[in-house]
Amino acid sequence: MELQKFTKEQLIEKVEELSMNLDKSTTNEAELKAKAIENEMIIGELRAENESLKNEVKVQKESTDMYKEWWQSESDKLAKVKDSLAAASVVLRAITNEATK
Question: Where are the annotated coiled coils located (predicted)?
């Protein structure tokens, strides 16, 4: 582009056009920076939420493991009671058989 070929009015228009483009570019850059900051904040919030959920899962797993251990303990106790009742039943049958002879 040869500036000598432009009239004064054309040069003024060109400068105004370039100035507007520069303003738009500056505005776009500021908007992009604001969006980037907003995105970083969102990422931070999501990471915090993710960490919170991980901790919640860990607590739930520990609680589930404790419940499983308790349930197994109770199940073992019931198995012993069942075995004791079966043994008592055998003894009672033997006593009943002896008594009825």
Answer: 8-63
CA distance 76 to 83: 11
Chain segment 27-69, per-residue pLDDT in tens: 888 899 999 999 999 999 999 999 999 999 999 999 999 999 9
Question: Do residues 6 and 14 make contact, with C-beta atoms less than 8 angstroms apart?
Answer: yes
The DSSP annotation for 78-97 comes to HHHHHHHHHHHHHHHHHHHH
Report DSSP letters for 25-56, one per residue. Answer: HHHHHHHHHHHHHHHHHHHHHHHHHHHHHHHH
The first and second tokens of residue 26, run together, are 């500056």
Contacts (Cβ under 8 Å, ≥6 apart) of 14: 6
Q: Where are the domains of the chain?
A: 8-100
Instruction: Confirm if 53 and 61 have CB atoms less than 8 A apart.
Output: no
Q: What is the pTM of this model?
A: 0.53
